[in-house]
Structure formats: C-alpha cells, structure tokens
Design brief:
mainly beta
Length: 91
C-alpha cells in the first residue's frame, strides 16, 4: 500500500475503506468502530481512524490489521495528523 497509489475514506457505516488508485479497486474494509468514522489520517505504514464512538484506532496500512484501540477519547474525532514517525508502535 502506498500513499500515492491508494485512496482512503471514513464512512457513516462505521468503516474505513481503502482502494487502489486510480482504478478504485477495493482493498480493505476496516470495521471496528461503533459509530461513524469522522477522521482518517495515514502515514507510510499506518492508518489512524477516529469515530463518534470516542475511540481512535490504529491500523496496519499493509495488512489492514487493527493494531491498537484508544478508548474514551475526549472528543468525537474530526482531525488527526501524524507528526512523528511512530513506527515503533509495531513492537
């Protein structure tokens, strides 16, 4: 998966969907949220999603595997951005 060859989107159906670009062939449906996904941010290897369920979820961008869930976030999650290389989270 590459930032420049893939398309990502959050949805009211509580999923994050990834597609290859430009042909838009579906790749992953990341479904673990209990409310609409309001924000998605990507890095080279990770996807972060935020939801109205007040959780933030960290996904592996290559496999679609859920790596970690952060519960009870103080907001409903509208914007997230990667500021640092957090690849050490995989360990």
């Amino acid at each position: 998966m590459s930032l420049f060859t893939d398309f990502f989107g959050g949805s009211l159906d509580r999923t994050v969907r990834t597609y290859s670009f430009p042909d838009l062939v579906p790749e992953f449906v990341l479904g673990a949220h209990r409310a609409a996904v309001n924000a998605v941010s990507i890095s080279k290897t990770l996807i972060v999603s935020g939801s109205g369920d007040r959780s933030i979820r960290l996904w592996d961008a290559e496999t679609g595997q859920l790596l970690r869930t952060f519960e009870n976030h103080h907001s409903r999650g509208y914007v997230y951005a990667f500021l640092l290389d957090i690849s050490s989270v995989h360990n």
